[in-house]
Amino acid sequence: MAEYDADSLEALIVGGHRSLRPEAAATPRFKPGDRVRARNIHPLGHTRLPRYARGREGVITRIHGPHVFPDSNAMGRGEDPRILYSVRFEGRALWDAAAGPRDCLHLDLWEPYLEPVPDGAR
Amino acid sequence: MDGIHDLGGMEGFGPIEREADEPVFHHDWERRAFAHEFVIGANLDEGRHAIERLDPVTYLTTSYYERWHLSHEMLLIEKGVLTAEEIEARVAKLKREGG
User: Fold this and answer.
1) Which of B43, B51, B76, B79 best probes binding to A when mutated, by most A CB atoms within 10 angstroms?
2) Residue A72: closest CA among chain B residues belongs to which residue?
3) What angle separates helix B84-97 from helix B64-78, to the nearest 10 degrees?
4) Which of A12, A23, A68, A103 is most buried (CB neighbours < 10 A)?
5) What's the total number of domains in chain A?
6) Chain B residues within 8 A (CB-CB) of chain A?
7) Tens digit of pLDDT for each residue in B47-95?
8) Beta bridge partners of A83
9) A62 occurs within a structural domain
10) Structural domain B28-97, CATH architecture
């Protein structure tokens, strides 16, 4: 558990929580442009993969680097940093015709949430 | 967990209230609830998961900082810092004294 003094606490509140762990060397499995599918997971514990994205396909747009993995950290199993990506989903892939044709949504998703979509499987 | 917190895509809650010059805190006790987040000995993700574990009716009928406060009570009990009886006794005492 972190300990704070007045200065470090103010920095946290003003600057925001930092979950980047650059020292956690890890080779990203995906690169920008790769097509991925959010896994259809239903863990009993914490996850930051929203239900509406599970099973849906999107495209990697950015690699954020290793970040604290909430699914582990929330459950008292340590920070276990994993690669975090920005993934673009087309609005129609999530909400069908209820989405505008040009709508899209970017979700920050950790590598264990994602599986590759092979070419030709689209 | 597939809990009530995962509201993305759900409908029927009515329009979002927009306040002009919305204050950071609406009540003085919310300042304390905010500060407690940093001293109860739980990490950010444990705090979020505690809020997810509030019962669904409580989750939907409490305010933002009420949920923070209830999650702090839950975590302090689970971590063995306080007991539910101690919290109830303190609340009863403050009610008697008008605190």
Assistant:
1) B43
2) B45
3) 130
4) A68
5) 1
6) 1-2, 6, 8-9, 38, 41-46, 48-49, 52
7) 999 999 999 999 999 999 999 999 999 999 999 999 999 999 999 999 9
8) A66
9) yes
10) Orthogonal Bundle (1.10)
CA gap A119, A32 in Å, rounded: 15
- Is the minimum CB–CB distance between A76 and chain B shorter than 8 Å? yes
C-alpha to C-alpha distance for B42 and B80, rounded to whole angstroms? 12
CATH of the domain at A66: 2.30.30.50
Q: Which of B8, B42, B48 sits opposite A52 (nearest CB)?
A: B8
CB pair distance less than 8 Å for B48 and A70: yes
Instruction: Sketch the domain layout of chain B as residue ranges.
Output: 28-97
**Could A95 and B46 be called an inter-chain contact, meaning their C-beta atoms sit closer than 8 Å?**
no
For residue A80, being part of any structural domain is answered with yes
HSE-CB for A53 with a 13 A CA cutoff: 25
Q: With cut-offs at 50, 70 and 90, classify the pLDDT of residue A3.
A: confident
State the complex-level ipTM: 0.90
Tell me how far apart the alpha carbons of residues A111 and A30 are, in angstroms, rounded to a whole number.
8
Nearest to A73 among B9, B41, B43 (CB): B43
Within 8 A of A45 by CB-CB distance, chain B residues are: 1, 49
pLDDT at A51: 97
Termini Cα distance of chain B: 37
Q: Which domain holds residue A61?
A: 19-116
Q: Tell me if A72 is assigned to some domain.
A: yes
Residue A77 lies in a domain: yes
